[in-house]
Amino acid sequence: MNLGEVKQLLYETVVKYHPGAMVVWEKTKGVTPKPPYITLGYSNLNRSLFPLSDDEGTHKYYNYSFTFEINLYTVGKPVKDDSEKVLYYENTAVEDLEEFVRFLDSEEMTDGLAEKNVTIVINPPVRDLSELIGDTKFNYRSMAEFTVTFVGLADGRYGVSGNKMVPNPSGGGLKEFTEAEDSVIEEVIIKEETDDGN
Q: What is the pTM of this model?
């Protein structure tokens, strides 16, 4: 997998658990949605210095890791009186995000991610970042950071044969780089020479 594919997998995983909330990536242009909504962010992509190779030496694999951040915004749980009138909204941001963390840690999710060579591990704690807006209204928000690891393939003569978008959105890459085949020695014949020339 590459970073773009892992980001898409993370997005789909968060959406799967939160069908009633809008999920958006940070630092994108658009209108701020109304709660409940979730923002996703990432930073610090690290790559192992040296690749691992398969038995034939035709594929190279790197271990990658990065920090993944989830911010959850919610209106909270309505607290009502006996006449069902809403008195106020209780802050549930931390417990709601912790519930999602338990979902991520479940056997079903960890097995599914492991099949794709991806792991998501929380870096505690789940933080309460709620703040008062004006004098009467709270913006209920919680945040958690995770370390995401995955295995990336660096194939081909230039290490980019799996790239689907050429050039990339930043103008990098050529089709000839993605199509260039890596030369592999299939068979070697060793012939021993003796002093008499045979």
A: 0.77
| 197: number of Cβ within 10 Å | 5
CB atoms within 10 A of CB 72: 27
Length of the chain: 198
Contact in structure between 26 and 40 (CB atoms under 8 Å): yes
Question: What is the Cα–Cα distance from 170 to 25, expressed in whole angstroms?
Answer: 19
Which residues are CB-neighbours of 36 under 8 A, at least 6 positions away? 18, 20, 21, 22, 72, 73, 74, 75
Query: Which tens digits make up the pLDDT trace of 135-194?
Result: 556 789 999 999 999 998 876 655 555 656 555 555 554 455 555 565 555 566 677 776
Tens digit of pLDDT for each residue in 179-196? 556 555 556 667 777 666
